[in-house]
Amino acid sequence: MKHLLTVIALALCISLKAQQNDPNFEKGLIKFNQNDFQASVELFTKSIKQSPTTLAYYKRAKAYQRLGSYDAALNDINQILLKEPLNKEAIDSKTLLYYLKDDYKSMADNIKRNINNGIETEHNSRFYLAIAYEELGKTDSSSILLELHLKQKPDDVDALSYRSGLSIVKLEFDSALADLDKIIKLDTTYKDAYFSRGFVKTLMGQYNVALPDLDKAEKLGFEDLILIFETRGDAYKELGDSLKAANEYDKAINQANEPDYDLMIKRAKLAYYQLDDDQTAFDLMTKVIQGSKDPLPEVYYIRACSARELNKLDQSEADFKKYAELAPKSRAHYIQWAYLKAEQKDWQKVIEYSNEYLKGQKVPGFAKSVALSLIGKALYEQKSIIEATKTLEEALKLDDENPDAHFWLAKILIELNKADEACEHFVKAYELGHLAAKEELIVNCDYTEDDFEE
After folding, report:
1. Confidence class of residue 15 from pLDDT cuts 50, 70 and 90?
2. Burial category of 382 from C-beta neighbours within 10 Å (exposed 0-12, middle 13-18, buried 19 and up)
3. How far apart (Å, rounded) are the C-alpha atoms in residues 250 and 277?
4. Which of 185-199, 282-296, 350-364, 367-381 has the lowest mean pLDDT?
5. CB contact at 8 A, 355 and 335
6. Which residues of the chain does CATH 1.25.40.10 include?
7. Is the pLDDT of residue 8 over 60?
């Protein structure tokens, strides 16, 4: 027995010495450590031609894996297993490669075969068999295996993390948090757990307590910075801090290697609806329209609205038409289109589009009031004074806080020589923020600049 061990040790030393004396292998290791995996593959290939050792095949397989060439990596691992069928590193790598190439059936078959042969490694375990079964749709078997694994290894943080992910998918947030809390107690540097816990808390509406976990995940080096920035942006948006939300979304957009159009849409909506930043909304939606295959109707709607605010009236008109084409059953856009037509002084279209908007289902009272005030304004401009008066009075019955309805009714009342009544409406319009009401009060109601001093 001693003699046999001596022979084996001598053979191993000779093999290692040969590998150390192979300049191609040594250069391949250097390139691998420098993350130049293509160059390392070429050098390991030269080494294998000279001396086809297990180590050279293994290192080339790892280089292929980093390049995403999983089939080539599997070929090298199989070469090792032909010579050394019990090589645990190769067995482990084979399972991992099946996982990486989404070949879950082969992954499951490989794990079962190894477990039956008494070989259990990091990736050849009930835990990874549970992952394979979950991906194959065998949910019940997966759950049983995962629980058996955790019963045997209750402190396996990777398995706990996987179970928490399944709980999140099922919207079982309390169960997910229980696992994530346990992981963090076991390993205070487990970055994925901090992110997941922060993410779950945002889903539960606990935005303030989510932010420290997201910050911790970033500090620990969580790889997907885009996901951190976007989730943190969502939290800030829900907390009402639109500027911080915009900053996080911008960081996520800039971090992406390829355009993330969904994120651009989210950022553009924040710009348009919360920040009154029409230029940013317009620019982002233009990028989405130019770059994505089939932009959603809302992309054209928001660009149409922001274009109108930027006085790009032709572009706004074209985008409203495109939106109407893509969403023919929608009526919501007609009120904004009516505003555009008012800018263009196309009063008949203002009336037509406002009435189209009113045909929509479940239009709230204040929104009906807005549409009616637009119609009233258009009728006034068309000199249909009686109809305009009736329409504006109806608008105010629905919403007495409508500044446009007060303003245009006051304009009519001035023409009808009802100055006192008109001035009451101008005052109300001014108090509600109508910018043009101030001048009307000065011209028609004997107000001076001093009357407007705060």
Report:
1. very low
2. middle
3. 14
4. 350-364
5. no
6. 334-454
7. no
What's the pLDDT band for 451 if we cut at 50, 70, 90?
A: confident
258-330 maps to which CATH number? Answer: 1.25.40
CA distances from 132 to 112, 152, 153, 158, 273 (A): 11, 19, 19, 15, 44
A 10 A CB-CB count for 359 gives 9
Question: Which amino acid, residue 409?
Answer: L
189, 190, 196, 199: CA torsion to nearest 10: 10
Structure tokens at 309: 């605010």
- Give the amino acid at 445: C
Positive or negative CA dihedral for 432, 438, 440, 445?
Answer: positive
Q: Which two tokens stand for residue 312?
A: 């790009």
d(CA 294, CA 271): 22
- Reported as a single tens digit per residue, the pLDDT across 335-387 is 999 999 999 999 999 999 999 999 987 889 999 999 999 999 999 999 999 99
CATH superfamily, region 334-454? Tetratricopeptide repeat domain (1.25.40.10)
pTM for the model stands at 0.78
383 burial type by CB count under 10 A (0-12 exposed, 13-18 middle, 19+ buried) = exposed
Six token digits for residue 199? 């993410």
Q: How far apart are CA 73 and CA 385, in angstroms?
A: 82
Give the C-alpha distances (Å, rounded to integers) separating 362 from 292, 324, 351, 356. 32, 19, 20, 13
